Amino acid sequence: MSNNIDEIPESGRGIKIMSHLADQLSYTRTPEHKNCLFIVKNYEQQGLNQSQALQKGSLLEQLIDFFNLLNWFKYEEPRKPLCNFPIQKIHLQVNTDLKALEQVLEWFNQLEHLPIPKTVWFQCQLVLAESFTNAVCHAHKGLPSETPIELEVTVFNDSLEMRIWDYGQPFDLEAKFSN
To answer: What is the rounded CA–CA span in Å between residue 3 and residue 64?
Structure first.
């Protein structure tokens, strides 16, 4: 894959930029005949120290940590990472219209108060805008403007997941990277 943006074919620039910004990027066809672009961005939460991390766990998890510090338990049960529990999850459905991008970005801004590093925030905002624009301009090209595009963002303690569903013809994500 070329690192020079000018060498990337125009048809694949957006998806390649998304792949550079995301930690995970996948594209699948659902049983409901929708396409789902799945994007994950990992990060370290701003200003989260060990005591604050413990406050986010259950009382039982805090007690286990306390007793582990005292070496009272010989067996340490593997703990689920704190990121398994969503902090916030939002969903939006809009019509196939580039003018809805403003609404999509305003909707995403409701998560701005969460402790997500600013760099990660802007990267996710860019990926969301690019994926929405791709759904409108490419996946839904020739479809009625009433065709819905669904968006979902789930925020965890150390990652952000985005899902964008469209009703267009599926494409081969891997082929886009090999162009």
So the answer is: 47
* CB-count burial class (<10 Å; 0-12, 13-18, 19+) for 97: middle
Task: Say if CB 41 and CB 23 are below 8 A apart.
Answer: yes
Range(s) for CATH 3.30.565 in the chain?
5-45+83-178
Q: Are 27 and 36 in contact (CB under 8 A)?
A: yes
Architecture of the CATH domain 5-45+83-178: 2-Layer Sandwich (3.30)
When pLDDT is cut at 50, 70 and 90, the band that residue 171 belongs to is confident
In what side-by-side order are the strands of the sheet with 159-166? 24-29, 35-42, 159-166, 148-155, 88-95
First to last CA, the chain: 8
Pinpoint the alpha helices (H) of the chain.
13-21, 50-56, 59-69, 101-108, 118-134, 173-178
Q: What is the pLDDT of residues 105-164, one digit of tens each?
A: 999 999 999 999 999 999 999 999 999 999 999 999 999 999 999 999 999 999 999 999
Tokens 């162009």 belong to which residue?
Answer: 179
